[in-house]
Amino acid sequence: MPVSDPEKLIAKADKLTKLSLTRWSADWRNATLLYEEAANLFRVAKKNEKAKEAFEKASKGQEMLSSPWDAAKDMESAAALAKELGNWNEVSDFYGRASELYMECGRPQPASDALVKAARALEDTIPDAAVQLYNEASAILEEDGKEQMTFDLYCAASSVYVKLEKYSAAATSLLQLGLAADKCNATNSQCKAYLGAIIVYLYAHDFKQAEKCYNDCSQVDAFLRSDQNRCASKLLSAYTEGDIEEIKRLAQSSTVSNLDHVVIKLARKLPTGDFILITNNSVSNFTLDGDEKQER
């Protein structure tokens, strides 16, 4: 049998796993080696569908051999091929299974990484699934005491939520980042996350929630004494006073320029939509059109 014929390798491997009158136990060890060899040959030949299926079989073989690490690696290979084929549900399923297998062998970081790979692959096609995967990946790391590794994941989740126009969820992701940063004494990241959340609420025209967020975060001493707190306080005051030029000036400040790029983009558009002018407990509505405002 030519070693370069992956079809025959698969056929031989399948035969080794089937029981018969003459074969009372499956030979998973040799079968798995054949599946992996065939998978690599298919991949080199750009036969991605067949390579994917061979890696799936190899992963099952590694599980049968009680080798979850190798099973996870083969499952990740299958997931990467599913991504190339545009089989998005399989991407989610395969990376999810790889994550479970990594957890079986006590490796939370690769387990989280597998979910992140799935999330990145799904951001444009199934964004709701992507944010769920980012959150699950963060939870795994936090459970392992690796909060600092979650910062980029919470930023990624908030970015997807913004694209989905789920601004409350985006702000919540940033607040979760702040909480994770607090646990590992990353005060700068914490303060930036809190200011980011306040800006997201302002962009979503939710002044009350922005104000509540500011008050809650100001209970944290590190934030209370920070440049980010001063910037947030000035922003809220400018909204209260209806000072559009001050809002725009603050949005261009160096404090805002050091935030996550998605938050910066939102800040540079402030104020947006119906601008609520709050003075002396009275509220007047203003509609913004470019740099102009007209009372309604």
Number of separate helices: 16
Question: In whole angstroms, how far apart are the ends?
Answer: 83 Å
Query: Can you tell me the CATH superfamily of the domain at 1-118?
Result: Tetratricopeptide repeat domain
Mean pLDDT: 91
What characterizes the major β-sheet?
3 strands, antiparallel
Report the top-level CATH class of the domain at 1-118: Mainly Alpha
Provide the structure class: mainly alpha
CATH architecture of the domain at 1-118: Alpha Horseshoe
Q: What percentage of amino acids are in beta strands? A: 5-15%
Total DSSP E strands: 3
Could you say which overall geometry the principal axes of the C-alpha atoms support?
elongated
Q: What's the Cα radius of gyration?
A: 26 Å
Q: Which bin fits the share of residues in helices?
A: over 70%
Could you say what the CATH topology of the domain at 1-118 is called?
Serine Threonine Protein Phosphatase 5, Tetratricopeptide repeat
What pattern of helices and strands is seen along the backbone? HHHHHHHHHHHHHHHHEEE
Enumerate the strands of the largest sheet in spatial order, edge to edge or round the barrel.
Answer: 1-2-3
Written description of the protein model:
This protein has about 300 residues and is mostly helical. It is built from 16 helices and three strands. The protein has a domain at about 1-120: Tetratricopeptide repeat domain (Serine Threonine Protein Phosphatase 5, Tetratricopeptide repeat, Alpha Horseshoe). The protein has helices at about 5-15, 30-45, 50-65, 70-85, 90-105, 110-120, 125-145, 150-165, 165-185, 185-205, 205-215, 220-225, 225-240, 245-250, 255, 260-265; strands at about 275-280, 280-290, 290-295. A three-stranded antiparallel β-sheet has the order 1-2-3, with helices on one face. A hairpin with a 2-residue loop joins strand 2 (about 280-290) and strand 3. The termini are far apart. Residues about 280-295 have low confidence and may be disordered. Its main location: membrane. It comes from Salix brachista.
